[in-house]
Amino acid sequence: MKKLIINCDDYGWDAPATQAILELGAAGQVSSTTVMANFASDAELRALAKLASPTLSVGLHLTLNAGQPLSAASQVPSLVDANGQFYSSSQLWQRFLLGQVRSAELKLEIAAQLRRLAAAGLPPSHADSHQHLHQYPLLGPALLGSLRELGVRRVRRLTAAGRLDGRGLVLQAFALSSRRALRGFATPGALVSTFSTEAASAAGFRRGVGAAFGQAQVVEFMSHPGLSERPGSPLMRVPEYTFWRSGEAHELLRELGGELVSYAQFAQ
């Protein structure tokens, strides 16, 4: 039987996303979430620790491109601007390509984020990254190497299955460039990101998961639910929350010949 992981990104990013993920996890409608360790509060981590289980895995949403580092800015000066904030994705990537980012500082901050989750009783089952940094050309292999050295064994495999828009094609190119660096990790064979470009619906779920099941035995569905929309974001968080909350995905998944699993429940 095919296996589907429904992973909610961005736990801790803001209150509407965090509360939506808690509600969906408690209702058994999703099977995984990844935490922005430099954003989530202690109370939010405690709430998630009460829900975490073999059927609701908790991983790290590695964040090096939003907010502040957990490390002191003086310890990671090549990662932050004059205000002590992380650079944007494009800025970080350009700085890395120019040799202006120190690999030791990347590893230090990754370790700090992993350590914060573990200290909260949430040893990460897996990792992905904010805006797919771990599969950027050249930068991605460096991040994956640090994750491997720090004991992470499962990561997201970026494939953008079923996405033919411009960004989807760019992501597919990124995925090809970092494929070798994923060796040694357990990964789902395909990633469905259908709801990143259209409002969540039964038709979109069926199309995206159906296409991915044609490629792989284990598939991840990337989700960004929220109780309200985030200003300036193209993601449609409320429709995603509403769709998952309805429970319709479970019936559709059965029709497609699949079962819901967590990151902690699959091996490859």
TrEMBL record:
InterPro entries reported in the protein's UniProt record: Glyco_hydro/deAcase_b/a-brl, YdjC-like
Entry cofactors: Mg(2+)
Gene3D superfamilies recorded: Glycoside hydrolase/deacetylase (3.20.20.370)
Alphabetically ordered keywords of this record: Carbohydrate metabolism, Hydrolase, Magnesium, Metal-binding
Entry protein name: ChbG/HpnK family deacetylase
Organism the protein comes from: Hymenobacter ginkgonis
Transmembrane segments: none
Gene Ontology biological process terms in this record: carbohydrate metabolic process
Domain of life: Bacteria
Record carries keyword RNA-binding: no
UniProt GO molecular function: deacetylase activity; hydrolase activity; metal ion binding
